[in-house]
Amino acid sequence: xxxxxxxxxxxxxxxxxxxxxxxxxxxxxxxxxxxxxxxxxxxxxxxxxxxxxxxxxxxxxxxxxxxxxxxxxxxxxxxxxxxxxxxxxxxxxxxxxxxxxxxxxxxxxxxxxxxxxxxxxxxxxxxxxxxxxxxxxxxxxxxxxxxxxxxx
Length: 152
Description:
Elements: H1 6-25, H2 32-44, E1 47-48, H3 49-56, H4 60-72, E2 76-80, E3 88-92, H5 94-114, H6 120-151
Antiparallel strand pairs: 1-3, 2-3
Helix pairs in contact: 1-5, 3-4
Protein name: MarR family transcriptional regulator
Pfam families: MarR
Organism: Thioclava dalianensis
């Protein structure tokens, strides 16, 4: 049955995790997409929208719209890059910084709920396995992108 294949199971698990996170983060006014962007800013520091698009693996126009909405809601600020006047960097706002730990707790509780009844050993094995799946598919993606660049 297709609903029992890896792709369907990963999709369903991701959908349910996202839904659970958003239900709990709603009180903060934060969506999963916004949370993912804030996590990248926390990890990397201020970033150009083009780099955010790469890291989030979404189209630049989608990142632009997301940042527009987040700026309107006071989650992020756009500031001139001191090294390149043509570039504006996206920074977390004081509001984002102040609620980051609350959102992190919501994310952690969501993952804890998702892994309830799964032993620590099995959860670690699952994480390693998913990393291997990502690495396997990333290798293929890099080869495909390399071919596309040669074709151009």
